């Protein structure tokens, strides 16, 4: 039995030039979807689109600044221009910040809101607008949130706040459009060893890279950080027809961290 196939569907994945977004884009393409590889880093998006083509799939790069509504609308329009519709939107793009409330400057908080909250809002607005007018109507939205939106993480005030907002937006979108055949779910990863985490290590722990990396591995009950390719299969399931009864859910993949 062929399950979790996306044949004939078109997906737009934000932040797809690296990390979790890259793995989702590659997997979607392997499972038959045409994939808009969207990223503010055009070189990264182009490289992933080339990987998809090399594997025999259909993918194309799209420059997208999720913090800009017109950029979001343009990315959706380009996707529809190429493939006629938008079936799947993955809101993956996001940024982080280290700091408690008093260590978070207003400009830092505003920056995280612009990308992590407004970015999901803008891309969802553009994507859902399209899903409501296409025939047949409907589609799937998959948001990448975080366990930081569910439980407190030390010195991640702004990040926790914005990822909590992503979870809330997921639930609202799911309920508001349940009668229009639009499903929306979110994935809440724990610590994933990705370029996102490596950038954090080099920015905040440059003098103790190996020690801090080892500590991040050790704090997970499974004894290691997760990998981006361990998140992508859940994003595939949520986008597939097999998940037709799943909407408004928060799916945790964290190596057992929140079970402690």
UniProtKB/TrEMBL annotation:
Family in the record: Belongs to the short-chain dehydrogenases/reductases (SDR) family.
Entries under NCBIfam families matching the protein: PRK07231.1
CDD domains found in the cross-reference section: SDR_c (cd05233)
Alphabetical list of Pfam families matching this protein: adh_short_C2 (PF13561)
Protein name, per record: 3-oxoacyl-[acyl-carrier-protein] reductase
Any one Gene Ontology molecular-function term assigned to this protein's record: oxidoreductase activity, acting on the CH-OH group of donors, NAD or NADP as acceptor
Coiled-coil zones: none
Organism whose genome encodes this protein: uncultured Thermomicrobiales bacterium
Domain of life: Bacteria
Signal peptide boundaries: none
